Amino acid sequence: MEFEFIRRDKMKEKPKDNLGFGKYFTDYMFVMEYNEIEGWHNKRIMPYGDITIDPATMVLHYAQETFEGLKAYRGKDGNIYLFRPYMNAKRFQNSNERMCMPIIDEDLFVGAIKELIKVERDWIPSGDGESLYIRPFMFTNESSLGVHVADTYKFMIILTPVGAYYPQGVNPIKIYVEDKFVRASVGGTGYVKCGGNYAASLVGQKKAESLGYTQVLWLDGVHRKYVEEVGSMNVMFLIDDTIVTAPIDGTVLPGVTRDSILTLLKDMGYKIEERHMSIDELMEAGHTGRLKEAFGTGTAAVISPIGELYYKGDKVTINNFETGDLTHKLYETLTGIQWAKIDDKYNWRERVL
Ligand code: COI
Predict the structure, then answer these.
(1) Which of 69, 131, 313, 323 could potentially form a cystine with 305 if both were Cys, beta carbons 3.0 to 4.6 Å apart?
(2) Contact residues of ligand 1, CB 6 A cut-off
(3) What's the 69 CA to ligand 1 centre distance in angstroms?
(4) Residues 295-336: pLDDT tens digits?
């Protein structure tokens, strides 16, 4: 890939510990622009820093914006890896199509990430569970207040060294089930990774936190009855010996981690039901002891055990608020592949260096 490299004079100091999530940003970022005549052009890796935009820039008003999330791992074998980046590239294309934004060729998307990672390799942390989170995003930078599909766009990639997404680490979290507001409905943008979905979810997140819960579980937008996803991850339930999770049919984000975990579960011999499960069925399974384990899956969250559900005054504790054996095994297997601690029989690792 041809690109310009604009060097910075002075490098930043790297954080030592307590990385948290998305608090520190590396020395460089990738940037390119789009217009109909030139297509994607002006590809460059340049010093991380502020961007200036006109107050009438359409993204500030009408939110034509999409993003992705993936990670670079410092493998135990000394190599640097991405995890299934072409799935992110494809999902980004699907998001951009829905938002009437330009498509980026998959090889350009992955190539730009690889070039930036090569430049920033020293920023990939090596502590347990630590990685370099990659945030590609696109927005319109056109100035106009008429509501229309914009003609010009900017694409950027920024990097942040991270540890666990939740302050609890990989310990069980408490989930609040939202019964009034909805996140997505059929025909909408639920499957799209766009900022607007997350803005719409904040009201539930705020309620959850005010009640002492870490995250919000969303129900479907029509009946407010069927379990869909948690604020920042997909969600799966082990009921008896079957895994139940919401299907990918337009309202749920098609998670890369979700897909990987379903593959691992199938190989482990679990029965999987991708179906619309009502919250009443789930709470009932919790009260009768059939709900053995619950966990969220996501790039940021990895595998996050769920220890409690709260719905309309009713509470269910799952597996005595302890990480279940299956959740633990899935975490170890997935992260084992990501950090090259175990064999990658699925060819999910993509070597960068
Ligand atoms: C991810 O898991 O990569 C996400 O984008 C979720 C969240 C941090 C917005």
Answers:
(1) 323
(2) 69, 198, 232, 298-300
(3) 6
(4) 999 999 999 999 999 999 999 999 999 999 999 999 999 999
